[in-house]
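Q: How would the structure tokens look for this protein?
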Amino acid sequence: MAWIVKLHRKTEKLALKLPRPALAALYLLMENIQQSGPVRGDWPNYGKLEGIRHHCHLKKGHPTYVAVWTEDKQTITVEIIYAGTHEKAPY
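A: Here is the predicted structure in token form.
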């Protein structure tokens, strides 16, 4: 079953400012979510946040880049609501 993966409008703008390795990781994450669903235990520092939110690291180091996404199981949709530095992540 394929999931529908969308970027939030603000996340689209933030993604343009990501360094290339983090942007490549974001696209890979989106592809993995589309194929296997929102639970990504095989990604670095993956964690399920409260409710329907998840997060993982896109690029380690300083600064660390993370992605945060929400899931909707009824419509099989995942929306990536944040992709950027760890300091500004909406946890």
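Residues 4-88 form a domain with the YaeB-like fold fold (CATH 3.30.2310.20).

The longest strand covers residues 77-85.

Upvote if useful.
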